[in-house]
Design a protein that fits this description.
The protein is of the alpha+beta class. The protein is built from 14 helices and 22 strands.
Length: about 600
C-alpha cells in the first residue's frame, strides 16, 4: 500500500512536465542511463559499511561463528567499497543471501540459544540492507534516471537506522513521495522489495486456537418446566439444559473467521397423561448450534445459525387403570411397549422442540452481542483512538485452524512503521503480542511533550491522562515520593525516543531541567536502558547505567543523572500475570512466560 500526501499536486506536475520530459528521455537513456544501471549501487549506497554493521556488531558472536563472521564482513566491505559494477554487486548479494540463511539456522539452533538475541539482531540489520540493495538495483534497472532520488532515500534510511528520529522518518517519507511522482517504475520496485522492512505493520498479535477458546468459552446450566402435548398425550415435567459455548477458527487468509458453537445436553423427566395410561419418560438429547462470523478489524458480519439434534427418549414406566390389580403389571408392560413403538415419532417431536427452543434463543443472543460489539467499535473504541491520533492506518486479520493473527499499522504523515516481525513457535494455549518501536514512538509523539516544561508530577499526570483517553477508563500513576518544583524542559523534537534492541528497552530523553533558585541545566541527551526478564512468577525490570551527554560539564550531567535515577528505580518487580475480563463478567488469568526485545520489536508470550 502506498501513501500519497499530495497525489493531485503530483499528478498535475507530472502531466505538466510530461511533454518536455519526453523530448530528453531518449537521449538521457543513451548517454547516461546505461551507465547508471551498470554502476548499480555506486553513488547510491555509502562507500563504507554503516556503523550498525561494523566490526562492533560482530564482536559478541560465539567463537564457533568466527569463520562465518569473517566471510560476511568481507562480503559487506566488498559490497560497500564502491568498486564493483552492478553484476559484481549482485554476486555479493547472492553471497550475503547464503550467509543470512546460515545465520538464520544458527539463530534457530539450540546450540546458540544463549546468543539468539544477538544473532537475530544482526540478521535483521543485514536483511534490511540486502533488501534495500536489491530494491535499488531493480529500481535503477526500471529507471536509471532515478539515481539521485534513490541516493537520497538510502541516506535517509541509514539515518533512521542510526537514530530513529522524527526528522529522519519524515525525510524517508518525503523522498518516497517524490519518487512516486517522478519515477513510478522505480518507486514500484522500492515498495515491493524494501519498504516492507520500514513501513510494515507495527503491532501484531498471534493467538493459538486453544487460548482463544479458553478466553471466550462459557458454560451454563438452566432448568425449565415442560408443558407440551403430543399425539393425544399431555406432557408435564422438568428439563435441565447444560451448554458449553466456544468457537472454532476457520481458515481464511483475508479476515478473521470463526464459528460460534454451542454444544448442549437436554435431560428431561416427564409424565404423559392420556385416557389409556400415564407414561413416565426420560429424555437425553444432544445438540450443536453453529454460527459463522467474520471480522475484518472494523466490523463483525455473520450468517444465520444452524443446528443439529440427536434426540433419545426412553419410556421406562406406566400406570393404567388396572395398576395395583391382578392384571396391573401386564397392562403397564403393554402401555410401555406401545409407547416405545412410537419412539421414532416421539424423538422427531423432541428434535423439533429442542430446535425451536434453542435456535431462536442462540441466534438472538449471538446477534445481539455481535451488534453490540459493532456499536462499541464504531461509537467508543475507534473514536477513542482517533481522539489521541492512534487509529490504525490499516488492519489485517487472518485465521487458520490453529491460530488467529491480527496486525495493525499505526503511523501518520511523515512517519515510518514496522519491519518484518519476529517468528515464534506458538503453542496452542499461548499468544504472542508484538509491538514495534515505531508504534511506541509514534504514540509518544501524540502525547504532546515536545517543547513542554513539566514537573515530574505534571509529567506523570500527562501520561496518565493520555492513557485514560486511550483505554476509556481512568488510569493513575502514583506521584513521585519527592518533588522539588524543578521542571523538565523537553526538546521541541524527539523529546522521548524508544528502541528495542539487544534484549533491552533503551529510552532516550532530550531534556533540560529548570530549577528553582539554581542555575538551569541545558538540554541534554539522556539514555536509560531497561532490561526486562521473567523469573518464575515475577517480571523484573532492571535499570542499567544512565548516560548523559554532559553538555555544560560533568557536574551538570551528574545532577540530571541523579534526578533520572531517582525517578526510575534500579530494579522493580511485578507479578508475571495478566487478568482478562470475559463477557460473562468472570476473569481469566494468563501467565507471562517470556519477554523479548530484538531488532526493534518487543515481544511478550502469554500462556494459560
Amino acid at each position: 500500500m502506498r501513501f500519497h500526501s499530495n497525489s493531485r499536486q503530483y499528478l498535475q506536475v507530472a502531466f505538466g512536465v510530461a511533454f518536455a520530459a519526453a523530448t530528453v528521455v531518449g537521449s538521457a537513456a543513451l548517454k547516461g542511463g546505461v551507465a547508471a544501471a551498470d554502476e548499480g549501487l555506486r553513488g547510491v549506497f555509502p562507500n563504507s559499511v554503516p556503523k550498525s554493521l561494523t566490526d562492533d556488531t560482530f564482536e559478541d558472536l560465539p567463537e564457533s561463528l568466527n569463520s562465518w563472521s569473517e566471510e560476511t564482513q568481507a562480503t559487506l566491505e566488498a559490497l560497500y567499497a564502491g568498486k564493483l559494477d552492478a553484476a559484481g554487486q549482485r554476486e555479493k548479494l547472492a553471497e550475503l543471501d547464503g550467509q543470512l540463511a546460515a545465520l538464520g539456522e544458527a539463530a534457530d539452533s539450540s546450540d546458540f540459544a544463549e546468543s539468539r538475541v544477538t544473532l537475530l539482531t544482526l540478521k535483521g540489520r543485514l536483511e534490511r540492507r540486502a533488501a534495500l540493495a536489491k530494491a535499488v538495483l531493480g529500481a535503477l534497472g526500471a529507471d536509471p534516471g532515478s539515481k539521485k532520488s534513490l541516493a537520497s532515500l538510502v541516506a535517509a534510511i541509514e539515518t533512521v537506522e542510526a537514530d530513529d528520529a522524527e526528522a529522519a522518518a519524515t525525510s524517508v517519507r518525503k523522498v518516497l513521495d517524490q519518487l512516486d511522482a517522478k519515477s513510478p517504475a522505480a518507486s514500484e520496485k522500492i515498495w515491493e522489495a524494501a519498504i516492507p522492512y520500514y513501513v510494515n505493520y507495527n503491532v501484531r498479535v498471534t493467538a493459538g486456537e486453544q487460548l482463544v477458546r479458553e478466553v471466550v468459552k462459557e458454560s451454563r446450566v438452566e432448568e425449565r418446566p415442560v408443558r407440551d402435548y403430543f399425539m393425544g398425550t399431555r406432557i408435564v415435567g422438568r428439563s435441565t439444559t447444560a451448554t458449553d459455548i466456544d468457537f472454532d477458527l476457520v481458515d481464511n487468509p483475508n479476515v478473521a473467521e470463526f464459528a460460534v458453537r454451542v454444544k448442549g445436553n437436554v435431560k428431561s423427566r416427564t409424565t404423559g397423561y392420556n385416557p389409556k395410561a400415564t407414561l413416565f419418560t426420560s429424555g437425553n438429547h444432544y445438540f450443536e448450534a453453529r454460527k459463522k462470523v467474520r471480522f475484518d478489524g472494523y466490523r463483525f458480519e455473520w450468517d444465520d445459525s444452524t443446528i443439529s439434534v440427536n434426540a433419545n427418549n426412553n419410556t421406562y414406566g406406566a400406570r393404567t387403570k388396572f395398576s395395583g390389580g391382578l392384571f396391573g403389571k401386564l397392562s403397564e408392560k403393554i402401555a410401555v411397549k406401545e409407547a416405545r413403538k412410537r419412539r421414532g415419532r416421539s424423538e422427531a417431536f423432541s428434535r423439533r422442540r429442542v430446535r425451536e427452543n434453542v435456535l431462536p434463543e442462540f441466534d438472538a443472543e449471538v446477534n445481539e452481542q455481535l451488534g453490540e460489539n459493532n456499536r462499541e467499535l464504531a461509537e467508543e473504541v475507534r473514536p477513542r483512538f482517533e481522539k489521541v491520533g492512534l487509529q490504525p492506518e490499516t488492519i489485517a486479520l487472518s485465521t487458520s485452524n490453529r491460530a488467529l493473527v491480527a496486525s495493525a499499522r499505526i503511523l501518520g504523515d511523515g512517519e515510518l512503521a514496522g519491519s518484518r516481525p519476529l517468528e515464534f513457535t506458538l503453542p496452542a494455549d499461548a499468544a504472542v503480542v508484538q509491538l514495534h518501536e515505531s508504534a511506541v514512538n509514534n504514540g509518544i509523539d501524540r502525547i504532546g511533550l515536545a517543547g513542554k516544561e513539566l514537573t515530574e508530577t505534571e509529567l506523570r499526570k500527562t501520561l496518565a491522562d493520555f492513557a485514560t483517553q486511550l483505554v476509556g477508563k481512568e488510569v493513575t500513576i502514583d506521584p513521585p515520593e519527592e518533588e522539588d518544583g524543578s521542571k523538565f524542559v523537553f526538546a521541541k523534537q524527539d523529546p522521548i525516543r524508544v528502541k528495542f534492541e539487544n534484549g533491552e528497552l533503551v529510552a532516550t530523553l532530550r531534556t533540560g531541567l529548570k530549577r528553582e533558585g539554581e542555575k538551569d541545566i541545558p538540554e541534554q541527551q539522556v539514555t536509560v536502558p531497561l532490561a526486562y526478564s521473567v523469573d518464575g512468577d515475577q517480571v523484573k525490570v532492571a535499570r542499567g547505567t544512565v548516560k548523559v551527554s554532559a553538555k555544560g560539564g560533568l557536574a551538570v550531567a551528574a545532577v540530571l543523572r541523579r534526578r533520572i535515577q531517582q525517578s526510575i528505580p534500579e530494579e522493580r518487580t511485578r507479578e508475571a500475570k495478566l487478568e482478562l475480563e470475559k463477557d460473562d463478567g468472570s476473569t481469566i488469568t494468563l501467565d507471562i512466560e517470556s519477554i523479548h526485545m530484538i531488532d526493534g520489536w518487543f515481544a511478550m508470550m502469554i500462556r494459560k
